[in-house]
Design brief:
about 30% helix; alpha+beta; 2 helices
Length: about 100
């Protein structure tokens, strides 16, 4: 079964997220270079404004189910090293691919 992994993160982590995908041999992904938002529980808003100037990016990839846990583990380790910077990953099922 195929799964989608959506990773959202402070733009400062862009190269590290790409490195995770490269090391996991995840070739296909779509990158959203500028996204705005605020974390659910903690963290500063990232809105690209004068008051909240930082911004986030996001990357989505569709992978085989057997890759998901390894990618999430690497994202979790990166978050532990840079908790204040911010990174989250979300996974859902892909029903069909054309």
């Amino acid at each position: 079964m195929m799964k989608a992994i959506f990773i959202t993160y402070n733009q400062a982590l862009t190269e590290k997220v790409q490195s995770i995908l490269d090391k996991m041999n995840v070739r296909g992904y779509t990158m959203f270079p500028t996204v705005w938002g605020r974390g659910t529980n903690e963290g500063e808003p990232r809105l690209g404004t004068h008051t909240w100037p930082e911004m986030n990016s996001a990357t989505m990839t569709i992978v085989n189910e057997d890759v998901v846990d390894a990618v999430l583990e690497k994202v979790q380790k990166l978050d532990a090293l840079n908790y204040e910077v911010g990174i989250k990953a979300f996974v859902w099922n892909i029903e069909k691919v054309v």
